[in-house]
Write a structure and sequence with these properties.
Layout (H helix, E strand, L loop, with lengths): L5 E4 L4 H14 L4 E4 L5 H4 L3 H6 L2 E3 L5 E3 L1 H11 L1 H9 L5 H14 L19
Parallel strand pairs: 1-2
Antiparallel strand pairs: 1-3, 3-4
Length: 126
Amino acid sequence: MRTLPVLVYDGDCGFCTSAVGLAERYVRPRCEATPWQRAPLASFGVSQQRAEYEALWVTPTNAVHGGAQAVAKLLLSAGSGWAVLGAVLTLPPMRWIAHGVYRLISNNRQRLPGGTPACALPANRQ
């Protein structure tokens, strides 16, 4: 059984890969990070469609948190001031605002630094 949560992200997206690299370097979350393309999605109880749509935080018991809440869990796992920010992102109204900001970034990640046309979500998943 895993003892650490897993952060699942889009390994084909330059922006996502860069964001995860920055988080690992500066935030130092207590997790394993793996692209969804190499993750055992079925054992996590996660569909490929969901993994393509949003970053996922999968706990050792396979509880799955997606999108902005995955980011909040990542921050909480880092401790210190990052954990305070993560906690704030779990509470209304910040939770709702974080969701909107996450969707805005996710829907436009191909336009952000490090983004490429491969980063674009299919139109039916935005």
